[in-house]
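Aim 2 progress update. The chain analyzed this quarter is reproduced below.
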Amino acid sequence: MSTRVLIVDDQTMVRQSFRAVLDAQPDIDVVGEACTGTDAVELCGRLGPDVVLMDVRMPQMDGLEATRRIMGDAAAGDELIATTKVLMLTTFDADEYVYGALQAGASGFLLKDGPLDDLVNAVRVIAAGNALFAPAVTKRLIAEFAVRRPVQHHGGRYDLDRLTEQETKVLRLVARGMSNAEIAAVLVIVEQTAKTHVSRMFAKLGVRDRAQAVVAAYEMGLVVPGE
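Predicted structure tokens:
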């Protein structure tokens, strides 16, 4: 089955260029376009896309609020969008909203000034459940903005005490942008075991993917900027 994509950006030329590239792929189907966050939320509820390419800055409702509402509807049990993932479109130097977007449930982000081939790869990566695209860059961005926010340690919405010692190690490695294979190599375990630890860690923290796990690690002070 094709990956169903909704493109959300207030610039017509951006939407058209993204659509042309994605529609040319045999495994990707662009099901709609939106130029505001308000329209994005409405179309998500009607179309149920697999991946939403979400611009950060838009009129009426920005990408952060739109992401929060879409993920809120998914968490509330809307079956049509239960598997929808949001990929933020951003510029690294400017968009402080990205940290908040990851907290709101976005699965990662894509730099808007990158090559269009990266867009195609990102859609496939996100759709496949490998939610954190370009993890090293994402980690840098989260680290930058984590400096400006007080860490919550054990008093916030994530409970580190629920994790085993091994799961805590895994979370720390995930927050450093490591894949399951890399985690397995560091901990000297097989990759399937690493994958199991990651899944259990997600469940215990109540996070849906690696992007939110990275946020959790910074919020709890398990990983600090510059480490």
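The longest strand covers residues 28-34. The chain has two domains: 3-133, 153-219. These observations will guide the mutagenesis experiments scheduled for the next reporting period.
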